[in-house]
Design a protein that fits this description.
Helices cover about 25% and strands about 25% of the residues. By secondary structure, it is an alpha+beta fold.
């Protein structure tokens, strides 16, 4: 029974709070799941969010990745323009590099902040099934096209609960360890990719299949730290990760005044080294030093791509005339000297011993081929154009 005391105002207040909470939740639930920003996940998963922020997943779009951006602008056009198509087809690049935009069929990556987040939390954690990259009718279905997605639940390897606080949407959580503990969660984007001329570009998935490995992408690229998967997704842009896959050793022998040197390089990975983008490369330089520390012999006077091709590990693409060509325009594969899965290769050199007292072999990893670096000024893109040392072997001679 109501009277003139406080129950009436209290009832009104409670009704208001209930209605306000209901409206906030309803509004939040009306937001498409793939429009939910990674920032909303950060409130509970701050460490994971910070790891993701510095990853190539977070920086995968043509707005943030200079290399992808350069190719995208050359092949597709301005990533801030809506309606760009290639031969009346939606740009396939966006299916992997900007999945939220791809799901909306948009090309203006500046239209919504969520488009610029690249491969964010929801892009992966709404995956409910993997359909594969091969269409039943032939051809490829890549990125978002290779998966089935849930529009109401977040999938994950655990059973963490998502609750509403008036700011975040209420979505059920369904554990799906089959996908999130297998290569399937990666293969939609990292299996294979061909250009318009049907020339294979990226092909990590087929490399793994050919190696008949029982390994798992996540074992290396999402190692657990304090029981939590590392969401930095270290890969081809990390010399730290690439160096873990290469083992290098060096031996020598002497006969008369000749010095013979053998350098062994072993790929410890279930895919080729390097893998991914076709312009990534590894090369080795061998140098001989005298007692003063001066270089008296070198395997390459400029760059192995020019004068010591056996020490160059790369995937070469070319045009119809056999000249080097960029990935979008390539019409054929000129060669593939990358290390195969678990392969050990030997480089042999012979030189006059002369005044050599020290031998040093250095393996370098480069994201770009020398000719491509001209498009990326060093002052602005030092991390992209500077080769990274991934292995060193030295011998002191008597």
């Amino acid at each position: 029974m109501l009277n003139n005391d406080r129950p009436l105002p209290l009832l009104i207040l409670l009704s208001y709070l209930f209605l306000s909470s209901f409206l906030q939740t309803a509004a939040a639930q009306a937001t498409p799941l793939h429009h939910v920003s990674a920032k909303q996940c950060a409130s509970c998963h701050q460490t994971i969010y910070q790891q993701w922020q510095g990853s190539m997943h977070a920086n995968s779009t043509a707005l943030k990745d200079p290399i992808h951006g350069a190719f995208y602008k050359a092949v597709v056009g301005d990533p801030t323009q809506e309606g760009l198509t290639k031969q009346d087809k939606y740009p396939v690049c966006l299916q992997c590099h900007a999945p939220a935009a791809a799901k909306d069929g948009k090309t203006d990556l500046s239209a919504l902040a969520i488009y610029g987040e690249g491969v964010n939390c929801v892009a992966c954690h709404t995956i409910s099934a993997y359909k594969g990259t091969q269409k039943a009718s032939g051809g490829l279905q890549l990125g978002t096209q290779a998966y089935e997605y849930s529009s109401t639940s977040l999938q994950g390897p655990g059973n963490s609960k998502i609750t509403a606080d008036g700011k975040h949407p209420i979505y059920s959580n369904t554990a799906n360890p089959a996908i999130f503990k297998s290569n399937a969660v990666c293969m939609g984007c990292h299996d294979q990719r061909k250009n318009a001329n049907k020339v294979t570009l990226c092909q990590t998935g087929s490399e793994i299949s050919a190696s008949e490995t029982e390994g798992n992408c996540l074992d290396c690229h999402m190692k657990k730290v304090n029981g939590k998967a590392d969401h930095r997704f270290l890969g081809g842009h990390s010399s730290e990760m690439v160096s873990q896959g290469l083992a290098m050793s060096m031996t020598h022998s002497e006969s008369s005044n000749t010095l013979k040197v053998s350098i062994k390089l072993s790929n410890k990975l279930p895919h080729k080294l390097p893998t991914g983008a076709p312009f990534r490369n590894i090369y080795v330089k061998l140098t001989g030093y005298d007692k003063q520390g001066e270089i008296v012999w070198a395997s390459s006077q400029s760059h192995p791509v020019k004068d010591d091709k056996k020490a160059m590990f790369m995937y070469s693409l070319g045009d119809a005339k056999g000249n080097p060509a960029p990935p979008p325009k390539a019409t054929q594969v000129l060669g593939d000297t990358r290390l195969k899965p678990y392969e050990t290769r030997e480089l042999n050199y012979a030189m006059a011993k002369a005044t050599i007292v020290k031998l040093k072999a250095v393996a370098y990893y480069d994201l770009l081929l020398p000719a491509m670096k001209k498009k990326f000024p060093q002052a602005e893109h030092k991390d992209l154009v500077q080769p990274k040392v991934i292995a060193v072997s030295e011998i002191e001679l008597n």
